Amino acid sequence: MRDRYQQLVTTAPGRFLARRVGLPEPPHLRRHTPGDPLIPGPVILGGAPAGRLVKVVGPMLAAAGVAVRELGPRAEERPGGARPHALVFDATGITRSEQLVALHDFFAPQVRAVAPSGRIVVLGTPPEHCADTREATAQRALEGFTRSTGKEVRRGVTSQLVYVTPGAEEGVESTVRFLLSGRSAYVSGQVIRVGSAEVPPPDDWERPLAGKVAVVTGAARGIGEAIVGVLARDGAHVVCVDVPSAASELAEVAAAHGGEAYPLDVTAADAPAALAGHLRSGVDVFVHNAGVTRDRTLAKMDAARWEIVLNVNLTSEERINDVLLGENVLRPGGRIVATSSMAGIAGNPGQTNYATSKAGVIGMVRSLAPTLASRGSTINAVAPGFVETRMTAAIPLVIREAGRRMNSMTQGGRPIDVAETVAWFASPGSAGINGEVVRVCGQSLLGA
Amino acid sequence: MRDRYQQLVTTAPGRFLARRVGLPEPPHLRRHTPGDPLIPGPVILGGAPAGRLVKVVGPMLAAAGVAVRELGPRAEERPGGARPHALVFDATGITRSEQLVALHDFFAPQVRAVAPSGRIVVLGTPPEHCADTREATAQRALEGFTRSTGKEVRRGVTSQLVYVTPGAEEGVESTVRFLLSGRSAYVSGQVIRVGSAEVPPPDDWERPLAGKVAVVTGAARGIGEAIVGVLARDGAHVVCVDVPSAASELAEVAAAHGGEAYPLDVTAADAPAALAGHLRSGVDVFVHNAGVTRDRTLAKMDAARWEIVLNVNLTSEERINDVLLGENVLRPGGRIVATSSMAGIAGNPGQTNYATSKAGVIGMVRSLAPTLASRGSTINAVAPGFVETRMTAAIPLVIREAGRRMNSMTQGGRPIDVAETVAWFASPGSAGINGEVVRVCGQSLLGA
């Protein structure tokens, strides 16, 4: 399956437009299909001396059926054999800036060999957990490396930095699996923190949500529909929520994925109480995905446009969280995931209302994280960039094309890319990921 | 004085190029000249009910000779009289997302009237200092508003969010002055935290560094030369440091600003000791500005290119900090300011070495901040975007033009814009600003 840009560039005007602005054809991105191996080729694993993660990640990957080739520090040559599909580097042994050259020594000889849709993953120690300022400085420097590499390598190769709190080594598996797999096709240039938490041993990595109950708002179409599909694929029973006017689409989505439809206006005064009643046996995963836009420049924006956007995208979520937590509707070990947006990070002209609401979602996730942690639960946000939906299809062609191409994948993402990221947060294996905001934007150039 | 882009668009090929890519002529930016009033027109000041800053900032501005018009909450009309040059809104009274509509109510009727090179400043409470998650969420939402407004308003108008820790209200003056003045011409879309600190009463806001000793590395040209000029203008005696091969340029810069030249290779093994010896009577302001690039894609980068960039841009600064702090060369109340870069925030292809070093500078500043605070001192970083220097002049025209235009000011910045930001950090009035990274990028679209 090709995305719409790829469809476009196979038409005559599309080819003309692409050539006109000097755009190459975007690479095909490897995405996950059930039954696929974790990664279709070997992983080269290396590390700076005295790192604490090589010895954990190596056996972890081998047990997952991945061909792992371990490389000692300061290897100047790349090992022979099949083209690597991932370069994973444990940088936790780096305690001073002088030692950062180990990144160069590991990656420079190998980076060109990485297969299309390959993966670069650097593992580090969160600067706030470092022993001294020299170590914190060197560890913070890693971010400049992974973000630059993501912009440089192209060919659908993603690049990420994963900060692992000391003691949380075993909890890194769900994240390493996500990042190496096709599930993270459109996630690049991210910094992800894995903290300490009790991580239950996984039963089946292909159905981590078996037996769980999930709720998805805004489920009738677009990104919400894709989230329903992926959570159901991963084993969850999904309660699909959307406004009553979308009830027939909602019923179709629910039926297609063996879930149930629950039409509800999340902004209604009694919506939180109604949800609590409907979910009285409890919920494991709650996805705040309902969202609206009412774009206008600030000078032309009436108060109604401001208020509906803030209410749907932010306040209604806060009110629902109150019952999820206050009335223990969210089960122990539960997950809340909210949809933020690139606009909430970088701001966007004509969207002061939308960007304010989506920046607020980031605040909500960060400020609620300690409360969730105390219940063995988590709350996180996805921040989509340019994702091919009905909403983005309505953007004028040239602006749409610029939005699509201004990222390291040189194409728009798909709703499933956001959904896979939600599912990774929702997984029992991701208990150590809390208060995080992960962009699903192909490493968009736009940011804060 | 016009910048080089403006010179370019007055030539025939320049006009052709600008029209070709649909670029309007960039606005002229108001910059500060000694003797200028703080701001050339009235400031409209408003706030949500129960805010704690209107009553501090109003008298502060009035005492500084600014015409302040206070506006009650939910004012639907803009006051009559001259065009406002700034809209300042105290959002500290906002404790729930429903109250964010106060932003709309204050700004929507007035935003179009703001004069060119006008200012939008929103004052908030740092989310980490809020009483509960609802307040933290609403306060974090402010960032989406100011970043969107900065991208929307244009005409050289800047937009910032200033988070003021409860109790630090009186310490906000240096920051409010900086943001309203022409000193911050190229600073927009920033989030600045003002924390609690003992702020000495200012003697003369035009010469805040009178009697102080400052050191600037990389002082022979470009941004470093501009920093020397601004610190000297503000009253400091400046010790100008650069490599011995630039000694003659360095001597000229020092002479032009009444400072002294001190040729030194900051990467030399004995450089920190030599500096400590040279500065044995102490230093008040140390500016780590020396920096080099050695661009190559990672696959083509030799270890030497990596090492020199990391050494000059990061490790040498760490080694000098060791003597500044370990041997008490930095006087009580001292300031360290380091030059990071947009590349250190967003990453940049072909600059894995440079971006790693500049991301490390951010780590250095953040991790050293508590140590500095314990001495009544601060450490902060500026992160320049596209600034017109010899370095950027070497970029090929089309890429250079894109870099210049992809920001809310639609033009490149000048070295003095970075220098003014350094001087604001260096000011005794900025004692509450510590561990911050402020971009001088005209609100570049590029970010993380």
From TrEMBL, chains A, B:
Q: Which residues form the Ketoreductase domain?
A: 212-385
Q: Which family is it part of?
A: Belongs to the short-chain dehydrogenases/reductases (SDR) family.
Q: Which Gene3D superfamilies match?
A: NAD(P)-binding Rossmann-like Domain
Signal peptide from the UniProt entry: none
Question: What's the protein name?
Answer: 3-oxoacyl-ACP reductase
Give the InterPro entries listed for this entry: KR_dom, NAD(P)-bd_dom_sf, Sc_DH/Rdtase_CS, SDR_fam
